Amino acid sequence: MVETLSDLDGFDRKILDILAVEGRISVTELARRIGLSKSPTQARLKRLEDQGVIRGYRALYDPIRLGRDHVAFVEVKLSDTRERALAAFNDAVLLVPEIEQCHLIAGAFDYLLKVRTAGMPGYRAVLAEKISTLPHVAHTSTSVAMQAVKEEGVAPIAPGTGS
């Protein structure tokens, strides 16, 4: 079982790096690119999937073309930060589809949320009706993104394979 990055060999790392940017690549092409035959490559893929290293494959869509062009980062301060309160907040956040990301952070605030909506009126509604009503929310502070410079970055796994 893979426990850490050091448990992956060079072939596994190359597989992960390639799939991170080309999720629809054929096993034959993947095998050619990493320098193995198809059968061992397929076995490695299955092992990485079975062990939960590869959690799935998905399509990346352009949210702007779908009318979801407003991105806000919301800092959230909770009134209670005991484990039960954090768990309640975490569970509730999962039910808000407009929240793309939620991170427990250290600093003046407890959480940082990335929220995507179809404009400022949509964001104001999400803030008022969903985020502000999450368990233990005491205070929020919003920063609106003016431009996404880098959103879909993928950190390389294999040394020297990043571009």
Automatic annotation (TrEMBL):
InterPro entries: ArsR-like_HTH, AsnC-type_HTH_dom, Dimeric_a/b-barrel, Tscrpt_reg_AsnC-like, Tscrpt_reg_AsnC/Lrp_C, Tscrpt_reg_HTH_AsnC-type_CS, WH-like_DNA-bd_sf, WH_DNA-bd_sf
GO biological process, one term: response to amino acid
SUPFAM superfamilies: Dimeric alpha+beta barrel, Winged helix' DNA-binding domain
MF annotations from Gene Ontology: sequence-specific DNA binding
Keywords: Activator, DNA-binding, Transcription, Transcription regulation
Cellular component GO terms, alphabetical: cytosol
PROSITE patterns per the UniProt record, alphabetical: HTH_ASNC_1 (PS00519), HTH_ASNC_2 (PS50956)
Residue stretches making up the HTH asnC-type domain: 8-69
SMART domains tied to this protein: HTH_ASNC (SM00344)
The keyword DNA-binding is assigned to this record: yes
Protein name: AsnC family transcriptional regulator
Organism: Yoonia maricola
